[in-house]
Amino acid sequence: MANALIIVDVQNDFCEGGSLAVAGGAGVAAGISRLLATEPDRWTHVVATKDYHVDPGAHFGDPPDFVESWPRHCVVGTSGSEFHPELDTARVEAIFHKGEHAAAYSGFEGHADDGECLADWLRRRDVDRVDVVGIATDHCVRATALDAAREGFATTVLLELTAAVAPATTDVALRAMEGAGVIMHGQPVIRAA
């Protein structure tokens, strides 16, 4: 069997200076790159997800409520949808786009360019264990980890390589992941409330 690293939404719009910036996002990008460089054999496979919006409807709010609706972000064709420059993507074998026409938080809702979903991609490569990193701990990382566990993968979140939006939603996310049997290491970066 094999293991995989899932890098969740380490995109310009979710890092400092982006339209929906999460404090510590650039540091998460750099930290993931350092880990991939120092432990090149730790994962058999490395994949990444991208928020990739064309017209996601009520997911973009004017004004946003920051619960169900958000400022415009990660719009296809914009620099905000690109990976952060501190993230070394040389090892990324496949990118799974999500949320073109609807809100999508989990990488398991996404698809590769050929239409294959993340769960099928991992199973075809005999992956049974995944580590999840990225942005944001309390939203897309949480959703991806919960779906990974639901899909039957032994799931670990490397919290020190995640950045969170807010303490309250992060507490809820950590409890949900623990309840689903997700293993967690470290502490996420969380900006002050």
Automatic annotation (TrEMBL):
Pathway field: Cofactor biosynthesis; nicotinate biosynthesis; nicotinate from nicotinamide: step 1/1
Annotated GO MF terms: metal ion binding; nicotinamidase activity
InterPro entries: Isochorismatase-like_dom, Isochorismatase-like_sf, Isochorismatase_Nicotinamidase
Enzyme class: hydrolase
Gene3D superfamilies (alphabetical): Isochorismatase-like
Superkingdom of the organism of origin: Bacteria
E.C. numbers: 3.5.1.19
UniProt KW keywords: Hydrolase, Metal-binding, Pyridine nucleotide biosynthesis
GO BP annotations listed: pyridine nucleotide biosynthetic process
Isochorismatase-like domain residues: 4-182
SUPFAM superfamilies reported in the protein's UniProt record: Isochorismatase-like hydrolases
Family membership: Belongs to the isochorismatase family.
Protein's UniProt name: nicotinamidase
